[in-house]
Amino acid sequence: MGQRASGIDPDIVRGIAEQVRDIHGLGVQVAVVIGGGNIYRGLSAAGEGIDRVTGDYMGMLATVINALALQDALEKLQVHTRVLSAIEIRQVAEPYIRRRAIRHLEKSRVVIIAAGTGNPYFTTDSAAALRAMEVKAEVILKATQVDGVYTADPRKDPKAKKIEAITYLEVLEKGLKVMDATAISLCMDNRVPIVVFNLGTRGNIRRAVMGEKIGSVVGDRS
Length: 222
Hints:
By secondary structure, the chain is of the alpha/beta class. It has two domains: 1-136, Carbamate kinase; 138-222, Carbamate kinase (3-Layer(aba) Sandwich), CATH 3.40.1160. It has helices at residues 10-24, 42-47, 52-76, 98-106, 124-134, 168-174, 181-190, 204-209; strands spanning 31-33, 81-85, 94-95, 110-114, 140-144, 149-150, 162-163, 165-167, 194-198, 216-219. A four-stranded parallel sheet has the order 1-4-2-3, sandwiched between helices. It has a four-stranded mixed sheet with strand order 5-9-10-8. Helix 1 (10-24) packs across helix 3 (52-76) and helix 5 (124-134) packs parallel to helix 7. The longest helix has 25 residues, at 52-76. The radius of gyration is 17 Å and the shape is globular. 36% of the residues are buried.
């Protein structure tokens, strides 16, 4: 949403698409799990009186809107894409099927995964971890608004310190808001590393893919 209060900023979407195009051009297989917080957050809605399950489904549908926006931006850059949704909306997206997702990746298509896991009470983080395991991803790139993992929220606590490398267990024990506990546990069980970095810095996705030292790494050893 950029600097907007909500919604979609076309310039931001275009910038993300260009970064994805750059790594796709390197021959990297790319699957993008996309959130919908810029449009609607189910957990926030629950605090406003909407049923939690209903709110979560509304949030999942918001991710479909974002997925379509990213697909449009990528296609304009001549990058072939497929949107796969855990909630069936056949007019705009294919249903998520693991083997189909892998096949699209093998055909050098960028796969955009929408609607989370298709289940309430599971976050986009959990969906990212689950889909990463299913397609046998080598790494999860957690593109966010901060430049790594901190001891506290650096936007609220000026004394927060950046942690360049940390183990899954330390993240869970310290209650750090890297990804939710379900996602961290799933990554730990399957030993898939997580690189956390700032999406707003142009070229960071490529830097992460190329193995440059950016952001923070969550893995087996700190």
